[in-house]
Amino acid sequence: MAECCFSSTRQGDGRILGATDEIADAANLVDRAVFRMVDTASFLWKHLDDAHIIYDTRSGHSQALNDFAYEIFDIIKESPGRLSDIMDDVERILEQPLTDDLKQQIRMTVVAFDKMGLIRPVKPE
User: For a disulfide at 33, which of 42, 58, 94, 121, Cβ 3.0-4.6 Å?
Assistant: First the structure.
């Protein structure tokens, strides 16, 4: 089974999401928000055998993503969507239903991407 795997040189700021004061329930935001890629113009990429390294020239931060995390990153880059949309795309790629464990790993990856500043949640209409 694929595992969520990434690392960051950026220290966490303690936030679960980029939630605003209007949304008190961060967990609910994860389920309802549309996730969009931030401006990637400042990203420099290095692809290795087992990792995809992103260096953000604006912040000076770098992240290392495994193939699983990179696939989720690519899904969001190609088509911004809700967590359920991302899970549907992963399910189509794997050609099998997602286990609860894999759904949780996808959720954790999306939350981590937000913490890293790679994506941003947009409050749904």
Answer: 121
Residue 125 inside a domain? The answer is yes
pLDDT (tens digit per residue) in 48-76: 888 999 998 988 989 999 999 999 999 99
What's at 16, amino acid-wise?
A: I
- Indicate the number of domains in the chain: 1
Provide CB contacts within 8 A for 13, sequence distance 6+: 115
What's the pTM?
0.74
